[in-house]
Design goal:
Layout lengths: L16 E6 L5 E7 L3 E8 L2 H4 L7 H23 L8 E7 L3 H18 L3 E5 H12 L7 E6 L4 E6 L6 E5 L5 H11 L6 H8 L25 H12 L8 H27 L3 E5 L6 H14 L2 E3 L3 H4 L4 H12 L27
Parallel strand pairs: 1-4, 4-5, 6-9, 9-10
Antiparallel strand pairs: 1-2, 2-3, 6-7, 7-8
The structure holds 5'-O-[(R)-(carboxyoxy)(hydroxy)phosphoryl]adenosine and zinc ion.
The site of zinc ion has 5 residues, from helix 4.
């Protein structure tokens, strides 16, 4: 539970070593973070070869592969950090949202380890983890700030307050932006995973070649929509007698439309909320055009923008350990009855963030 009172005089100290475990989708990851700030080890075991033949993540195969790798991934992280399980001050594990079967593997392993070594256990919201990646990489990012979460499953803007739980300002009404990248990759005949391959294909393309819509960009409010943009790309693809000569232009034009909306809406939200700092996190935060355009426009508006380094944008366990270290510092403890949640909003998690 959070300490009494709404304002704490100083940040409580997290335990020295925290093991993070993340298995919400198709990455099995473990990491050790020291003092809530320093990444001592971060191991990510991906499953691209498992899912590539299907062009997307197959939940059954993901959880089966997690079962095979969980203990060796955790052991590798501990060995790299040079700490044993008994040295840990806590175990932090993603408890949702995500694929239930995948989540359960990491969660069960975390519980067993915590029980065996009598360690405190905390469940972490996957998006709190992504946001913690920005704080981990930039200790001068101070709350309150605006958080833009852009991943395969989420597109949302939050006010990350210093004395209140995260407040949702807007989110996608249909597809997530990363999902749109993945679907457009398929339409263009580009390899899985879609985000990086669309971005690579866009390099030689003309982003003005196809005037794709910027859905909801000029509408009031902070919601997003990506399914219409994906349909516009599908129609443009259908109209091509030969895809090869225009593939780069289509990729570049889609990428420009998808990322322009994020830049416009995030900066409008920053103005409307009176926030001078913006953290952009999640897998799509690895996108080079988004990073460049957001930085350029933010600077013009006097907003400081923070992106985690690329290895902390896509799913990893360092972000979970960092978010968990914060919860542990505040005295949060979740017992062995902790459940996995396939869907749970960040501001309504049973293991919601305590105030800063
Ligand atoms: O955060 P993440 O690893 O997993 C989720 O929580 O969803 O994000 C994965 C998403 C995928 O949709 C992937 O295509 C997208 O991030 N992504 C990118 C890039 N790298 C990964 N999208 C655009 N450009 C990239 N460079
Ligand atoms: Zn993620």
């Amino acid at each position: 539970m959070s300490p009494a009172g709404t304002h704490a005089p100083s940040r409580p100290r997290p335990p020295r070593w925290v093991l993070g475990i993340e298995s919400s989708c198709d990455e099995m990851a473990a990491a050790v973070v020291e003092d809530g700030l320093e990444v001592r080890a971060s191991t990510v075991h991906g499953q691209l070869d498992v899912h590539r033949p299907y062009g997307g993540v197959v939940p059954e195969l993901a959880s089966r592969d997690h079962l095979r790798t969980v203990s060796q991934v955790a052991r590798a992280a501990l060995a790299e950090a040079g700490v044993g399980p008994a040295d840990l001050g806590g175990v932090a594990v993603t408890a949702g949202p995500g694929l239930l079967g995948s989540l359960l593997v990491g969660l069960s392993f975390g519980k067993a380890l915590a029980w065996r070594h009598r360690l405190p256990l905390v469940g972490v919201h996957h998006l709190a983890g992504h946001l913690a990646a920005a704080e981990l990489a930039a200790p001068d990012l101070a709350r309150p700030y605006l958080g833009l979460v852009v991943s395969g499953g989420h597109t949302a803007l939050y006010r990350i307050g210093s004395d209140a739980p995260p407040a949702l300002l807007g989110q996608t009404r249909d597809d997530a932006v990363g999902e749109a990248f993945d679907k457009v990759a398929k339409l263009l005949g580009l390899p899985y995973p879609g985000g990086p391959s669309v971005s690579a294909a866009a390099k030689g393309g003309d982003e003005r070649a196809f005037p794709f819509p910027r859905p909801m960009q000029d509408r009031p409010g902070f919601d997003f929509s990506y399914s219409g943009l994906k349909t516009a790309v599908a129609l443009a693809v259908e109209a091509q007698p030969d895809l090869a000569p225009v593939r780069a232009d289509l990729a570049a034009s889609f990428q420009a439309a998808a990322t322009d909306v994020l830049v416009a809406k995030a900066l409008r939200a920053a103005r409307s909320e009176g926030l001078g700092q913006l953290a952009v996190v999640g897998g799509v935060a690895a996108n080079a055009r988004l990073r460049a355009e957001m930085a350029r426009h933010a600077e013009a508006q006097g907003v400081r923008v923070f992106f985690p380094p690329l290895r902390l944008c896509t799913d990893n366990a360092a972000m979970i350990a960092a978010a968990g270290a914060r919860l542990l510092a505040w005295g949060e403890r979740h017992g062995l009855g902790l459940g996995a949640f396939s869907r749970v909003p960040l501001d309504q998690a049973p293991w919601a963030e305590p105030p800063a």
